[in-house]
Amino acid sequence: MADISIRLRWPRGDFALDVALQLPGQGVSALFGPSGCGKTTCLRALAGLEKLPDAYITIGDEIWQDTSRNIFIPPHQRSLGYVFQEASLFPHLSVEQNLLFGVKRLPPQHPKADFTYICQLLGIQSLLQRRPHQLSGGERQRVAIARALLLAPKILLMDEPLSALDQARKQEILPYLEQLHRQLSIPIIYVSHATDEVSRLADHLTLLQQGKVVASGPLNETLSRLDLPADFAEQAAVVWEMTLHELEDDGLAHLQTADHISLLVGQTKQALGSRVRCRIDARDVSLSLHKAVDSSILNLLPATLLDMVPAETPGHLLVKLQVGQQPLLARITQRSAHTLKLQQAMPLWVQIKAVALLE
């Protein structure tokens, strides 16, 4: 599918939304930022639930809104699926009846999704005869996602779909969202303020602050920027796509990137050959001029220093490095940088103290 173009302007008292975005027509694009930054307004405008006074929205070659030409396609005529924070299922209908409610109202010429495949994809085959009150929060949300997908949409919009769930239910549903990521060919726009969800699911990341885009691009390219505002830089991290290469006898898992960079992490339930994501926080990376030979830290990798800037914490620096083809960030003190005489293009060794395996 062709790219998604969004241009929105909406002055509203003390808050002004001013967004211009070009999002890819495949994969998961995350809109990330604190509450009140404009994420949900962007999503609702894309769906046509908010008719903003100055907007231009195209999905591929379809124009959904262009206020300069008085074009506005109403929500029911936009080929989209929308998943809200709450599942909002009809309590008097079974799961199967909830799923088919919207499908029965589609025009005869509208493409039809494969009911059995969607149910299998979201693991809800055994739930079809239950009523919503008989489901857990995670099960209700999976049904809501299936209901949206059964409309055979050209795009799936998800507005903080896990925010109403506790941690256990979030962990229950995240593997299904990853499955959607792998299996669906349609683009997904995913709104969240949770770094773990974005790190695990997103391919493309847009950072919003006070109604404006502060950065937008491929996930790691955006995460590893050094010019982000303090609110984002405080959570500085990168995400590495890796493959489970080997399970060690001592309970560790050996992971590799496509360019053969290796990491050792705690044991995982994933099968050998599985693709996984690892989040590496800048605060968990230290630097050395030489490879340590007597360190308890297992992940020691050669790197090249690309750049460094003052961090938001006084007396600290944020350092950008390259490990093979992978970006990496380190948060260190200015005193350490002075002691090591750090400078651009300098070869170093990085010590990665902790790796969050996102599974």
Detailed description of the structure:
With 359 residues, this protein is α+β, with helices and mostly antiparallel strands. The chain has helices spanning 39-47, 95-103, 115-121, 137-149, 167-183, 195-201, 219-223, 230-233, 334-340; strands at 4-12, 15-23, 28-32, 54-59, 62-66, 71-72, 80-83, 155-159, 188-192, 204-209, 212-218, 237-247, 252-256, 262-266, 275-281, 285-288, 299-310, 316-323, 326-333, 347-352, 356-358. The strands form four sheets. A six-stranded mixed sheet has the order 7-8-9-3-10-11, sandwiched between helices. It has a five-stranded antiparallel sheet with strand order 2-1-4-5-6, covered by helices on one side. It has a five-stranded antiparallel sheet with strand order 14-13-12-15-21. Strand 8 (155-159), helix 5 and strand 9 form a beta-alpha-beta unit. The longest helix has 17 residues, at 167-183.
